Amino acid sequence: MKPLLPLLLFFLLFGLVAQAQTAVDVSGKWNLTVDTDAGSGTPTFLLKQEGEKITGTYSGQLGEAPLTGTIKGGVIHIEFAVEGNKITYDGKASSTEMEGKVDLAGMATGTFKGKKD
């Protein structure tokens, strides 16, 4: 019976750590500042999060587009397409701020920072 107790404690601790990693909630309106080698902009994301899955809308200089993404332990990935060109945002996020790198379909790269409205 003694070997079972450490195993149970391990799984309990593992479950608590996993739960803490997914505690970031990015649902809501986000105002971002983007700087790339092709220029800068201030897009808005309207995000909805269900577990690790993100859906929503991009609105900015490239127009409007539906987006999808994931968040895992504070690591965020968002993507959408404009006229067939895939735009990706990859970085770190808390429930109130995010920052990272943006790739504009391989035509330009840069950085982004944002805060929840």
Could you walk me through the main structural features you see in this protein, from its secondary elements to its overall organization?
The protein has 117 residues and is an alpha+beta fold. The protein is built from 1 helix and 9 strands; from the N terminus they run H-E-E-E-E-E-E-E-E-E. The mean pLDDT is 89. Strands 1-3-4-5-6-7-8-9 form an 8-stranded antiparallel barrel. The longest helix has 18 residues, at 4-21. The chain has a single domain, classed as Beta Barrel (Lipocalin). A hairpin with a 4-residue loop joins strand 8 and strand 9 (109-116). Helices cover 15% and strands 60% of the residues. The protein has one helix at 4-21; strands spanning 28-36, 39-41, 44-50, 53-60, 63-72, 75-82, 85-93, 97-104, 109-116. Residues 1-20 form the signal peptide. Keywords: Signal.
Q: Which sheet architecture does the biggest sheet show?
A: 8 strands, antiparallel, barrel
The spatial strand order of the largest sheet comes to 1-3-4-5-6-7-8-9
Q: What's the CATH class, please?
A: Mainly Beta
Number of strands: 9
Low-confidence stretches: none
- Can you identify the CATH superfamily? Quinohemoprotein amine dehydrogenase alpha subunit, domain 2
CATH topology: Lipocalin
Instruction: Determine the oligomeric state from the structure.
Output: single chain
Number of helices: 1
Average pLDDT across residues? 89
Distance between the termini: 53 Å
Rg, rounded, reads 18 Å
